[in-house]
Write a structure and sequence with these properties.
Four copies of one chain form a homotetramer. By secondary structure, chain A is α/β, with parallel strands linked by helices. Chain A contains ten helices and 17 strands. Helices cover 33% and strands 26% of the residues of chain A. The termini of chain A are far apart. The structure holds 1,4-dihydronicotinamide adenine dinucleotide (NAI) (4 copies). One 1,4-dihydronicotinamide adenine dinucleotide (NAI) binds next to helix 1 of chain C.
């Protein structure tokens, strides 16, 4: 059992999730490498010190480069806004540190490609934080589709819709600004998760046509009303390389949808349905059953399903959001240990970013775009 | 209580549904006009006579023109394949008979327009059989949206997907042939219902981009394998005149979906969700409630909701498929009685057919189409 | 196709349901006997005449004995409060008329037994109106259990709970009065349906212990507050003759439950779940499936299930409350036609009433009671 | 931030859950005391050493007394079969160590009372591991009921049913043996959780009548078929001190139910429903809403609900089984820190055990039992 000294940049939403996961992943999965919460960096030294004390990190810094360059750090987790990822990743490459970077990888595909090439060039383990695809249910979905159990995939209806910015009184932030965030709004914030699911579960996207909208054109800013620069919602039609077609919705203003990451995948022999709001169930339809016994079956996750047993011996006892990060981290640790690339790599993140960029272009030009 | 002598053309799936509805609508809604099952026509005299005996029609004929021209018939219900609608409707206009015609109204928008103009010119009551929009739940949805209760509609995700042709061993029929059916497949067979719902609940569609596919390229025909001529499935992006955007899926090969007519309508103050497979419930989200008490509310239909009380005094006791036709018929009877046009009129059917036609063009040319 | 001239007593909640069913059952099931809505009786001549006009009955009377004795009536449907059933049934026996009587058959088991013996003695077709057990889903449940598909039944958890008297401001009525209703309240009004389901699906009940309560001790009466005389809610433990055990809840004050007739039946090889609020689905669990593919399967009713096809060719299109009465009536007509007893006969109603009576005794004496 | 050196006895199902929780609770809740995984004990020294290495405990022992008496241990978690609890607890009292003990507290109420008196006499923090009641949803249920939001509770329908021993081929174990487990089977293994929920959410139980059954009378034992000594399933009727009545089911052989801990609590103004298989949702019915807007509302847990924010800022992102233990542990740490008794204390465990014992007596004597 060897320790891996982790440096974490960012102490927001995801900084905390990674901290929690780092502390329990070893016991849960009995990993070869055991992570140690070595150093945390945020925008300020005081903030970092405070979070270190509260969350149990050994050291802290207000300068992320200090963290990256510190010889006492073996691997880095980047949990800061996308605008910062490129510099941080390139610094990690220089410092020869494996990286787990939050999604979206870059602010655009060009940035992502630079990161991919740098990491691959340096031969460092690298991973993008697409955690939702890590649930036992989504892993089972992958197995079922790959095995041919539902036949060839023909139609795919997916969405990642939430309502975290539904209220127009919620302030502008890096998420709504191109300068500090990305040109895409919900399209870069939530859609990457479900685009990644499409690529993982169904395969490459060959072409798409997209439409996006800003719903609330201003939000309170630090200096009064601030114009909103990127999309609140949108949808696209997809054609997959394997011939399947489908549609994808995304939103940050979808009233009532809290974790609306859903996929319905129809095949020539059956179908699957998943809703992240009920993340411990996968619905499976088998068209070969007797007509009087056909119907979607609600399979509750349990020890018979991928990665579940490590969390609980009891079927249906359930995993939650943070457990997704634990599974992600287990894979990242394995990647660092073996030196192997572990899915989803930066390249996978780049593939997602290309889809986002194609969608932006399609929405702008109102036309189908090939990938 | 005056009798209205009905002539019905067609004794298939919908012929039976209309027969059932005709016999009970009077007692259920205590209608002013009471329909009498006067004469039924099918393709053959023997078949018609047989159905008359089994279903309780007073007379029968193997020639629909006999029925239309018969002075003992006051109004006509057309429940035959779309390819036959134009001739029948024009004959009814000549004979000055009000018509309730099954969907889709025409084989294309041009046909529909001819029918609209003929009926309107003659000042005859006319209606298209969009029954799904008749449920108490969908009527309630209409009320809720119209009242502004969920604010301005911003995103619309809808589908009408079934799996009645999922199995490639199912034979070709008028539904799969352009010559006897329509150029559109599922797009003309199931999609019209949900397009109609969009128009009813959200308003006119300004533009769309569509994609369609044939999944099973041949099916057993009378003379061996027969090439399938129209779409099995597809999807479109929609822009509504009021600024909302959305997506629509349709399919006749959607494994596991039996009556997958669903709509999710998101507004600036709340949202609605409906699934026809659970037709007695409407889900409502009110964004104005206290954050700790927010959530989709499952409203079971009851006497407090449109048209429910006539069926039952008990909340949640439930209406079914045939009850939709009863409601439709009640409105048609009212239209005949008052001479007023009753929604959805042929013109509404025409509006739907224009969307279908735009979708065909869009799919063919792979571009956005304005309506 | 022979006509059967029906006399209906009662024009309330159930009077209307029977009227609707009478008018469409012939077309739906192509019955041998076709019912004719001949004569309706209510408490007053004017009321009866009014209902006849509105609902399409040929004749009417304010005196039910006139109806029963009328030679132009071939069979009688009794849809009046339980307190009136005994006299009416005995009169029908004298007049040699087959009877379909609403539940509960008698005000107590002794009354029921008198009716059973009279009808059986006269060899007349007789049936009790347990309509909920008529849904395609509950018929399928019966088939599945009888076939051994879920093994031996071991535990049964059922309820019939509604909230039609939840509001204490709702007035007293025959339902709450012993003098005009029954000594049992919800126990005689809703519980009989689910007791009947237990007997049908699982078999005879060997012993029980029950508990009942009045929640709202007074309600508005015609002369001010009126003391409530029978139970608002209760529950019982059951032991079945076949060794299974279970519990049963009933209520007329169960806030939020509209048609809460649910059963969960667990066997040694699987389990079933049904909820009348979603009456077109039956949930089936098969314990023999591979552990990674186990889960309750939501089977939507369709033509492959009992009695569905007559209503619709489309799976999941759905039946509703009144369709249950149609199925019931189809069986009653068959019984009249063949002279055979058709389940559930008066004797079945008596078996239910014995359970109700045992529950009353058990609740009063706070002890287990054998049946 | 002070460390608390924890000793854990037991490395089975619950031993692992406590280990995981111990490692992340500090970061999640920023607790005053930070637990340190100091020493673990199991039945054998080798097993303990192995688990220590795999799970990250600093020391290990094959003799739990060594652990309890070790001055380097500040508090003890007991996660061994019930038969061992009494000795361990008494030893902890002698050693002046606060204890978190798994449920059921004792093998019978007398044992539990001894433990209560010993702990209370010594003034040590003590808690029983009723984790299910810790979910944000169940805490919210408690708040809602306590605030009077659903009025006075009138009917309570609850269950804790699973199918972990549904298969008769599963071997006998301490769970099925009186000598090493408890006289009650499922009644002592799963029922305590839901009894505890009743006491917590509704209040003291005044009387009950219970029924229990062994379904599989033998199971494979180490020396061939072994007779099963305690109940597989059962149910009871409950009367609460506040006048509410209800029923409770429990089972370890309930095919298809994986985590069937559900409660439906009906009040004079509304109702609540919860199902642990969908642990991130609470269903609330408000009878005061307009009749056309009434229905159960599915509230997804989020930062507005008890203890959720510490896990995630996102509504509906979800907590899982192990997070329940984290919340439990947070409270235990607080109890140790402040010296205060923290609910549910040993006394609460004793109250549950009294209900279990009353149920055993009731089932044996087939009569109502007062508590
Ligand atoms: N996988 C998932 O489920 C989620 C992923 N994310 C992703 O995680 C990343 C972070 O998002 P949140 O945690 O929501 O953001 P946040 O706004 O909650 O926190 C950002 C953190 O980054 C720190 N930070 C920003 N600039 C920095 C700099 N130059 N140097 C050091 N620290 C800096 C801030 O001090 C703050 O602690 C984003 O890429 C986002 O897209 C966010 C939420 C969920
Ligand atoms: N509103 C709804 O839910 C549904 C509507 N439909 C629509 O109803 C119409 C009929 O469809 P189905 O009933 O499914 O068809 P079907 O194939 O079951 O029955 C068609 C009937 O029309 C008769 N027919 C055909 N050509 C005729 C002619 N020249 N003269 C006299 N009778 C003729 C046939 O004999 C047959 O009785 C179509 O427009 C279809 O799109 C169909 C199913 C559901
Ligand atoms: N199967 C089911 O789902 C249901 C069954 N029922 C049962 O149906 C029966 C009737 O109940 P509701 O229709 O709800 O009652 P209701 O109060 O709505 O109607 C009762 C009808 O009986 C008539 N009536 C009463 N005494 C009469 C008399 N002496 N002579 C002639 N007519 C008389 C009244 O005028 C009224 O038309 C009861 O036995 C009840 O338990 C009621 C509701 C649902
Ligand atoms: N709160 C909850 O959700 C659950 C609670 N439990 C409770 O947790 C307790 C343990 O159950 P499981 O973990 O399922 O049991 P298990 O059989 O999985 O593990 C028992 C552990 O106790 C150890 N052990 C037994 N006797 C010992 C002794 N004399 N000295 C040291 N170690 C000893 C065994 O070596 C083993 O590691 C029980 O009281 C059970 O009722 C169990 C499962 C779920």
């Amino acid at each position: 059992m060897k320790e891996l000294r982790i440096g974490l940049i960012g102490a927001g939403y995801m900084g905390k999730a990674h901290t929690i996961a780092l502390q329990s992943v070893g016991a849960i999965f009995e990993t070869g490498l055991r992570p140690r919460c070595e150093m945390i960096a945020t925008s300020t030294a005081a903030g970092a010190a405070d979070h270190a004390a509260r969350w149990g990190w050994h050291r802290s810094t207000g300068d992320w480069r200090t963290l990256v360059d510190n010889p006492g750090i073996d691997a880095v987790i980047i949990a800061t806004p996308p605008r910062t990822h490129l510099d941080m990743v390139l610094a990690c490459v220089s410092a020869k540190k494996p990286v787990l970077c939050e999604k979206p990888l870059g602010c655009d595909a060009a940035e992502s490609l630079r990161m991919v090439e740098a990491m691959e060039g340096a031969g460092l383990a690298n991973m993008v934080g697409f955690n939702y695809i890590r649930t036992p249910a989504s892993q089972l979905a992958k197995q079922i589709i790959a095995s041919g159990e539902i036949g060839e995939v023909i139609q795919v209806t997916v969405e990642h819709v939430e309502d975290y910015l539904h209220d127009p009184a919620l302030p502008a932030s890096w998420r709504t600004r191109v300068s500090t965030g990305t040109a895409a709004g919900a399209l870069a914030d939530v859609a990457p998760h479900i685009i990644n699911a499409c690529l993982r579960l169904v395969g490459p996207i060959a072409s798409l046509v997209a439409d996006t909208q800003v719903i609330h054109t201003t939000r309170p800013g630090p200096h009064g009303p601030e114009a909103i620069e990127n999309d609140d919602q949108g949808q696209m039609l997809l054609r997959f390389a394997n011939g399947a077609s489908g549609s994808l919705s995304f939103s940050r203003v979808a009233a009532g949808r809290k974790m609306g990451y859903t996929y319905r995948i129809t095949g020539t022999r059956g179908a699957l349905y998943f809703d992240q709001e009920d993340q411990n169930a996968l619905w499976l339809y088998d068209a070969a059953r007797d007509p009087s016994r056909r119907g979607f079956q609600k399979i509750l996750m349990g020890p018979a399903h991928p990665d579940y047993l490590a969390f609980s011996q009891g079927v249906g006892h359930g995993t939650g959001y943070n457990d997704q990060i634990v599974i992600e981290l287990r894979d990242f640790l394995r990647g660092v240990e073996t030196g192997d690339a572990v899915w989803p790599t930066f390249r996978d993140g780049y593939e997602v970013d290309k889809v986002v960029e194609a969608a932006l272009a399609s929405a702008r030009d109102r036309r189908w775009v090939d990938l």
